[in-house]
Q: What sequence folds into this?
């Protein structure tokens, strides 16, 4: 789970047909290609706090996950593997042969699937505050958010309930910042539908890489938040230990969205690893 903020789409509205759907994506910057994959319910705008700085060092490719933002919502259920194939198909259309991959939360599950199933197509991998199998507590949070949406609870009230699971106590010590994030989220125009959120939830429930993620043989960096309630620190550290040669970085006092709360540190750690 992440956070959507409004953003000026500088490149018009580019779409690519890949894996049977129309995928909305953006590109920015020059250098080695780096695909940024957002988490549950989120789209490319999740990266608004880090994209400008990262684009000074990399060619960023920022797709909207299926059904989110401006990417088509396909008929029927879909899986984490389907969303990984969307990313690979987009790279094929853009003739990008071997990008770095950075995925957050559910996007980190998508990144794992890519690295395990298509190692020849992937360069380095950054798994940001993600999971091998989402904990029951996290699934309960998503179910609660779906109930709020289903019963048409006002968006402000939804955010006031869900945000404490996504951000740190440090952020909540600054009520003005919390209010700013809530207002930006309310103003966003491209929210995923309730049906798509249900399908993403099902995809998360059905994902379990615990039997195979240790076979990932790409250079890997695992990012963790010290106070992450959804993807706990211990789980992220264990993942780093089980992937041969993987590195781990812990963001002190951070919750589930270090890229939003400490974007400059986030960018520095990612840049140092990838370069």
A:
């Amino acid at each position: 789970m992440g956070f959507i903020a409004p953003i000026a789409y500088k490149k018009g509205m580019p779409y690519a047909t890949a894996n049977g759907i129309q995928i909305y994506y953006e590109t920015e910057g020059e250098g080695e290609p780096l695909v940024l994959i957002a988490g549950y319910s989120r789209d490319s705008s999740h990266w608004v706090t880090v994209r400008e700085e990262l684009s000074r060092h990399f060619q960023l490719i920022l797709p909207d996950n299926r059904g989110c933002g401006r990417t088509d919502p396909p008929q029927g259920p879909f899986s984490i593997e389907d969303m990984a194939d969307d990313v690979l198909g987009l790279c094929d259309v853009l003739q990008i042969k071997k990008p770095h991959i950075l995925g957050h939360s559910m996007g980190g599950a998508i990144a794992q699937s890519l690295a395990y199933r298509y190692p020849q197509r992937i360069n380095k991998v950054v798994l940001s505050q993600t999971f091998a199998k989402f904990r029951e507590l996290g699934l309960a949070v998503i179910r609660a958010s779906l109930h709020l949406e289903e019963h048409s609870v006002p968006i402000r009230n939804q955010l006031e309930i869900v945000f404490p699971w996504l951000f740190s106590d440090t952020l909540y010590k600054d009520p003005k910042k919390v209010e700013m994030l809530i207002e930006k989220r309310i103003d966003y125009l491209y929210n995923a539908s309730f049906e798509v959120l249900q399908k993403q939830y099902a995809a998360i429930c059905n994902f379990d890489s615990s039997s195979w993620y240790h076979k990932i043989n790409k250079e890997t960096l695992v990012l963790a938040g010290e106070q992450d309630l959804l993807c706990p620190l211990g789980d992220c550290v264990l993942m780093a230990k089980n992937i041969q040669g993987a590195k781990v970085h812990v963001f002190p006092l951070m919750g589930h969205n270090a890229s939003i709360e400490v974007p400059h540190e986030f960018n520095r750690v990612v840049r140092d690893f990838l370069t």
Residues 2-11 have pLDDT under 50 and may be disordered. Residues 15-274 form a domain with the Rossmann fold fold (CATH 3.40.50.1820).
